[in-house]
């Protein structure tokens, strides 16, 4: 299969080399099983720290996004360091570059691409660009809920939904200040138009990613291209 794994910045922290090494082992194992593997890495707390400081210093939102992108690429370089020569050594700055790295038989790890989005959207766009069979969102939550479970007590877990249904949920969550959606709106819109198959799962244990790809078994949320009742 042709796979994109989008690893949230909160899952892949520079403070935890052991977990980065485990993610690298999973990506390597998937590649050795014959899958074509690309990863997109978020910025996590280093991105937030740099963005907050630059905001206080007066940088505008576009410039803050550029700083965020730089942080995502630094995180990508940590995963590349753990992958060694199995990976393209520099995070690609475009989908075209990422695709040519994959065509050379390498694992590709990238961060952000352009301002005004997050790596959730990069994951979906890369998956669309390379006609991926599966996009895995490895996040710090175990799937999609009807609302943000940290903010809403009666939020219900959803095991399967369509991209259109996901969009409705994200729009509701984003109207609630302070609440966060597991995948952002632009990413969900790319999923909707491309018909990609995606899974949102708990990536704090990298073994969950391997199991989902190799055996199809997971406890996350499956996002389908068709319509499904929530
Ligand atoms: P993340 O993808 O980590 O953003 O990129 P996030 O979703 O806000 O972080 P988490 O998942 O909650 O931890 C970090 C920042 O980098 C910029 C944005 O400012 C984003 O908030 N960024 C990233 C871009 O501007 N463009 C990109 O393509 C990617």
Secondary structure elements and their pairing?
Layout: E1 2-7, H1 17-32, E2 36-41, H2 44-56, H3 61-83, H4 95-103, E3 108-110, H5 119-129, E4 134-139, E5 144-145, E6 157-158, E7 160-162, H6 163-174, H7 185-194, E8 198-202, H8 207-215, E9 221-224
Parallel strand pairs: 1-2, 1-4, 2-3, 4-8, 7-9
Antiparallel strand pairs: 5-6, 8-9
Helix pairs in contact: 1-3, 1-8, 2-3, 5-7, 6-7
The structure holds uridine 5'-triphosphate (UTP).
Give a verbal description of the structure:
Helices cover 45% and strands 16% of the residues. By secondary structure, the protein is of the alpha/beta class. Helix 1 packs across helix 3, helix 1 runs parallel beside helix 8 and helix 5 runs parallel beside helix 7. The protein starts with a strand and ends in a 6-residue tail after the last strand. The relative contact order is 0.17. Bound molecules: uridine 5'-triphosphate. The site of uridine 5'-triphosphate (UTP) has 21 residues, from helix 2, helix 3 and helix 5.
